[in-house]
Amino acid sequence: MLTCILFLFSAQPGVSQDRCGTEAHTQLLRDKNIIRETKDVFENWMQKKLKSTQSKLSTQRTQAGPYQVPVVVHVIHNGEAIGTGVNISNAQILSQINVLNADFNRLNADAANTPAEFLPVAGAFDIEFVLAKQTPDGLSTNGIVRVQGSQTQWTINDNYALKAQSYWPAEDYLNIWVTNMGGGLIGFAQFPVSPLPGLESASNSRLTDGVAIHYRAFGSIDDGAFDLDSRYNRGRTTTHELGHFF
What we know:
Oligomer: single chain
Distance between the termini: 11 Å
Shape: globular
Helix content: 25-40%
Number of strands: 6
Mean pLDDT: 82
Number of helices: 5
Structural class: alpha/beta
Order of helices and strands: HHEHEEHEEEH
Strand content: 5-15%
Radius of gyration: 18 Å
């Protein structure tokens, strides 16, 4: 199933991809010697893991329903009222969750526009994104955390500082940070780390595990009159970045 993840939704030229900061973020980690594998080495490792996993799944696993992914959305705002500016509304956040569930299960309305070359590998990922219902301390939650940030704009170079504003354990939650991003970016993800030689120091990445998205590219205009960039107003930026993440 992992091989299908980047082909789940219709390719839209100019949308999400050209302002994605994931590659730049990964290169920054390489420059700092935090990760030392090359893209080719990682891809070769991944292909071997896929074959092994697919073989096991075909003979060992039965599943009654989609695998649920508990999501926490950290809104790092600038002191605005809820529903204003960076401090986006709950409805806008729910809109993005709906887009993710449609896209990853190939239920999106434009699935029929999938390019012919991708049709042989297009498929559903069989997961469901749900806003977390319980905090790390066991308290009830709606899965949305709102924090006034220590600065008004964030870039890839602020990765640790941004995510330190609000974070839930990555082994239990998918962390998504929504904020005002600078540097011309609308989102970036942290690539998964493989157990290849030379990655011993990468364990610190647990504290930054997840995706960061610009607040004007989070959610879909189909669900409300949200303040979204007209070029990125269908929620596909987050779908794209989570494709990197998974």
